[in-house]
Amino acid sequence: MMLQANNIHKTFNAGTINEKVALNGATLELNEGEFVTVIGGNGAGKSTFLNAIAGVWPVDGGSIVIDGEDVTGLNEYKRAKYLGRVFQDPMNGTAADMEIIENLALAARRGQKRGLGWGITKDEKEQYHELLKELDLGLEDRMTAKVGLLSGGQRQALTLLMATLQKPKVLLLDEHTAALDPKTAATVLEATDRIVTEHNLTTMMVTHNMRDAIAHGNRLIMMNEGKVILNIAGEEKKNLTIEDLLHKFEEVSGTEFTNDKAILSK
Fold it and tell me: Most buried residue among 12, 49, 73, 240 by CB atoms closer than 10 A?
């Protein structure tokens, strides 16, 4: 089992007028190489669940185990060696004033002791050239360009490469195509599928797009009120339609699915 998030609870502003129960017993187990898409209405707990796994703040209850290591008590910095992350904002994962090649080299050296001999070798240059070429965005010919000059989609594709260079135990994608136009989003999702499959990465992808949630990954979970209420895998997921999903949600939760953004992105 690569990821076990057991009975996670998190309440923000407890005991105040602004108290918000964000996670209410959220549970998920992922085997190595499983790719789960996470969907739910606004405030369902999707991103909060991802942040709990990443260690952004301590959880109030439950445990998080990554590849047999209990990381529940570890802070975000110490947990980072197990994880790759891509955020919604393309500006978040890269250093804008550094070159593409320097960003990749930084990602490749993450966790290593930095000496004075920080040069990028010929072999590394060739490796990065090939990796960038596979993205099919023309970045392999712009390796010395400053990242700040790239479009949002190019930056997001680069962030994805950087997050997966060291083959993380778990890859966390938090609505990583939401800020992109549909064509660019499709390119980044295609790259995501390829990289996840190629490296057999255990992946969680939060999305508000039902079509994407159905089309990608081998499992789909739906969250509501801070817990996982649907968990669909295998053949059932392959044959799923948006209508099926909405129907199942209403069946399990007893309410209608009310997230305009998700419905509109059918």
Answer: 49
In this predicted model, what pLDDT tens digit does every residue of 53-99 receive, in sequence order?
A: 999 999 999 999 999 999 999 999 899 899 999 999 988 888 899 99
Bridge partners of 170, per DSSP, are 83, 202
∠ CA 241-230-18 to the nearest 5 degrees?
A: 120
Residue 203: HSE in the Cβ half-sphere, 13 Å Cα cutoff: 32
List the one residue out of 166, 108, 101, 176 whose CA is nearest residue 139. Answer: 101
Residues ≥6 apart with Cβ < 8 Å to 193 = 216
Residue with tokens 């072999």: 123
Measured CA to CA, the distance from residue 123 to residue 264 in angstroms comes to 46
CB neighbour list of residue 244: distance below 8 Å, 6 or more residues apart:
none
Cα separation, 211 vs 262, whole angstroms = 9
The predicted pLDDT at position 258 comes to 65
Q: Considering the chain, what percentage of its residues have pLDDT values greater than 90?
A: 69
Q: Which CATH class is domain 3-98+151-264?
A: alpha beta
